[in-house]
Design goal:
Length: 201
């Protein structure tokens, strides 16, 4: 009985419980959904071929409900293609259009993978951050496998060199970490506001 009281009153357990409540609140909020969608779409202005679809896909899949995550990433992908064929003057050929669909497929698969959100233990908070790391690495491998398989049919396999692959991964990792930190700040602020509301009552 004493052990159960200690466990129930554990600061770590309380922190984990508050984190889970905040996570659900942010996940269901329109603000995070719209912010992630806007940032993903705007990133296409900076990037062309190396737009961080994996980094955004991992964060979207791991922090949003599945349908919203897919909507976010398909919007980001569509904006990428739209800007590519207009502002960036992509050649309007069957090969280029097909590559666009391949990128869309890879993005969708990464997002679906990240949305699995498995539990690695009793702490939802610990599981979440561990899963972000696993999903980023696994998602990148999955994405590049899709690109590689398409490359055998469409051409472009010569671009698969370690320096290029590492550079693309590093860019996606920076975005994933940055977005993950932004999400954590929102969780902290949501948890803080909830605690203040409880104290007022």
């Amino acid at each position: 009985m004493h052990y159960s009281k200690i466990a129930t009153n554990s600061p770590l357990l309380k922190l984990s419980a508050r984190w889970e409540v905040a996570y659900r609140s942010v996940s269901r909020s329109k603000f995070w959904f719209l912010l992630l969608t806007a940032l993903g779409s705007l990133s296409n202005v900076v990037y062309t071929c190396t737009v961080p679809l994996v980094g955004f896909g991992v964060i979207a899949g791991a922090t949003l409900p599945r349908r919203r995550a897919i909507a976010t990433m398909m919007t980001m992908w569509f904006v990428n293609q739209l800007l590519g064929f207009t502002i960036h003057n992509y050649p309007q050929t069957l090969n280029t259009f097909t590559w666009g669909l391949v990128l869309g497929l890879g993005t969708l698969l990464v997002t679906l993978l990240a949305s699995i959100k498995p539990s690695f233990g009793s702490s939802p908070m610990g599981s979440h951050y561990l899963w972000l790391a696993v999903a980023l690495m696994g998602g990148y491998v999955l994405y590049e496998c899709v690109i590689l398989l398409a490359g055998f049919a469409l051409g472009g396999v010569e671009g698969f060199t370690l320096p290029i692959l590492w550079g693309v991964f590093a860019g996606n990792a920076v975005w994933a970490i940055t977005l993950g930190c932004l999400h954590s700040i929102l969780l902290w602020d949501t948890s803080r506001q909830s605690s203040h509301a409880v104290l007022k009552h």
